[in-house]
Hints:
By secondary structure, the protein is of the alpha/beta class. The protein has helices at residues 12-23, 41-54, 79-82, 99-104, 111-124, 140-148, 177-181, 183-191, 201-204, 211-218, 223-243, 254-261, 315-331; strands spanning 2-8, 27-34, 63-65, 131-135, 156-162, 196-199, 266-271, 273-275, 286-288, 307-313. The chain has an eight-stranded mixed beta sheet, with helices on both faces. Strand 4 (131-135), helix 6 (140-148) and strand 5 form a beta-alpha-beta unit. Bound molecules: beta-D-ribofuranose and calcium ion. Calcium ion binds next to helix 1. This is Nucleoside hydrolase. Keywords: Hydrolase.
Amino acid sequence: LHSVWLDCDPGHDDATAILLALHCRNIHLLGVSTVHGNSDAQSTLLNAARCLQAFAAPESVKVYPGASKPILRSAQHAPEIHGVDGLGGVEGLPPLSDEGVLARIVTSSKAIEAIADALRKTWMDGAGSKISIIASGPLTNVALFLSVYPELSDGIEQIVFMGGGVGVGNRTAVAEFNILCDPEAAQIVLDTPVPKTMVPLNVTHQAIVTPAIQARLVATPTPLRHTLSTLIRFFEDAYKATFGFDDGPPLHDALTVAYVSCPELFKCKRYRVDVELEGKHTVGETIADIWDYRRADDTWGPTGKNSLVALELDVPAFFDLLLDCVAKCDAV
Ligand code: BDR
Ligand code: CA
């Protein structure tokens, strides 16, 4: 069983990551934190609370507010992909006035304190089990957490983040959105000596929600399936209009949770990865040293091959997992 913390910026595909984190058999979701990204920090916080409620999270799973801006830069959002509030076009989520939604939101402690508490309880005081941190938005919260609580990093099993691309971007020719939003945070995370897996566009673009998958999703009409199909349709239209994707949208963030649950669905290579922080045309690019020019060592930190990079996905098995989680959520 993997104890998991999910840091996210919902976001259509983040919502599917939340669903998987709640219903994958071998994942125990400890808590959720939110960050600026697809929308402003207040919207992503409320969206996460609404998703937890809609996806039948146990009452113990709460959401904590995180950073509203990157470490050095100003915040940028993606209204053309996710709508102004981050979950454009999604029908059937509980309203913000819903008592259950409000009860999810903790304002007395911030994201990084909540992650620290979870680590103390689960790893230091508890059964000694480590935590996997999954990040599906800009890496600001994770970088701040690692900087403020370095003594807790030994309790991190792995950090799995959706972000970056090897030779491909989606916000500039070479920069992916999550990394471009806070490149300094991404470099801090990459320099931290704990095992990491980067889930870049190269692999997330394989997870296309085709018409055949959408048909399987709505084969049984339930309120949850209706919500998810409106989510996918909005995302599909955005991807068609912005990138010319004709066959459906890529479900980027869901792959991070699938990786923790079923790493055997992925083919990964371990590389030295750095983030371009200054380039004229390349700020936010993730540079994976695929020929090992740097002669990096075998550590996960600043001199080493610091990250696994997921490059291939067993696509049918991934969508079976997703639809299995939908069925489980429907049965709650
Ligand atoms: C990433 O950016 C956001 O639009 C998505 O939620 C995903 O995390 C893809 O580049
Ligand atoms: Ca995201």
